[in-house]
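Before a computer can learn anything about folding, someone has to put a protein's shape into writing. The three-dimensional part falls to structure tokens, numbers that each stand for a local backbone shape. The protein below has been through that process, and both of its lines are reproduced in full.
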Amino acid sequence: MENELLTICMLGAAIGLSNLLRTRDQLTLRAVLGSMGSGAATALASYIALLLFPRIDQRAQIGLACLSALLGPRALTRWAEKLLDRRHL
């Protein structure tokens, strides 16, 4: 479990950094650490899938982590809001 968390954090951090490198923004320590932290935290959000699907395969979990890190926090927030709105109807 701890090894999986570390793997997911590292993948998310790498994706966050690659997203920053694709922009024309100035590379500062703050921007690098911020993008890596945001990517890692967003990737960790994929652990919610374990609550919904307890028997999910580790490869699927890592795939969800990469997808959530690529989409970013705004996209995940919008998706969660839509999901919660549908459940309350």
Observations:
- The chain has one domain: 2-88.
